[in-house]
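WARN retry 2 of 3 for item q-0093 after timeout on previous attempt; input resubmitted unchanged.
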Amino acid sequence: MSPVTTRSSRSLDWPTLLLYLVLVGLGWVAVYAASYSPDAPAHPLSTLPFGELMAFNWFKQLIWIGTAVVLIGILLVVDYKAYDTFAYVLYGVMIVLLLITLVVARPIAGSRSWLEFGPVRLQPAEFAKFTTALAASRFMAGINLRNQNWRDQAVLAGITLLPVALILASNETGQALVFGALLLAYFREGMSPLILLLLAAGGIILLLALLVPKLWLLGGFTVILLAAFALNAKLWRHHLILSISVWVAVVGMVFAVDFFFNNVLHPYQRQRIEMLIDPGKDPLGKGWNVTQSKIALGSGGWLGKGFLNGTQTKFDFVPEQSTDFIFCTVGEEWGWAGCLVVIALYLTLLGRILFVAERQKSVFGRTYGYCVASILFVHFAVNLGMTMGLAPVVGIPLPFFSYGGSSLWSFTILLFSLLALDAHRKQDLLR
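OK item q-0093 returned
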């Protein structure tokens, strides 16, 4: 073993590695339970031929885990300076891959987002989060967002939104939405909180436009605005034009919702929003997934039904239970206690990543660490929200738990690139 490799392994953040191994291990157990059938002729100790074992998700997930271990070794051996040096190159390669995917990928479940290499399918959108985080971190390492330089902020927005546009063009709305998580990292590095507030206010207005009749919404907003003017006369003299502009913008947004909802969104996207607003509208049709998911979660009680004893799981009531709805298996078989343990593990991992990010000696390392934490947090929060009916079903996997090679590889690359940077953080002072 070389001195560099030895030094890297000694400096590796072992608590984060342990949390990763525990989550991946529990995830494999959940995938096995979700794909288990009493009539299946295979189990982890089966001696069936390789070709027959490949028909089972749990076996394929084992292979992905094995390749992820190899990937970890590569990420830790690669010179840590390469992540910074080749950030833009990797970003450019991924943009080209996203473009190629749009052209050559065949439609699967309504989207063109998978590149196929024989029996292996990879989703470039998963890896685009890693390359975009690298490129954004490299860019922010050379600027100061606190200076409120709008040109720099426009470039940063372009770096973030270019892959988003390509992913949206491939009809992968859920993956595109995850890139919004990077705003949290940008905010840490000095981006104006006004941008976050404006985006949050816009999101609230759009949501209210779906839930509340337009006349009520606009009437209420107008009354609030007039009341503010009545209570503070200075608003008339100093902020009248601004207030009118805000009112016009809100009116435009409210009336644009109908057009966007009916003419821009695909039918399945409208259905997801409708089910989020009124889950009981069509429980046996459009709302089947979420309805069965909540039944599975609630039926486990405090301690669960036991490993491989979940009826919702065993009889395939919940579609996509190995991927998007893997947390249902946790709730049904491990109970609320098991759910709390899994949630605690994720929150501990997120806290550890933030700790690692804050101790970086370079702006690049710190920013990248916050990008990793933000991406994992949004995946975790939205996936759990999907299974509980608190968020629309947008096809976002649960990190390290959901079945799939692209998902496991992308999250592994995100996390262990950060650990590679962290293992050499003291050397940044010498650069």
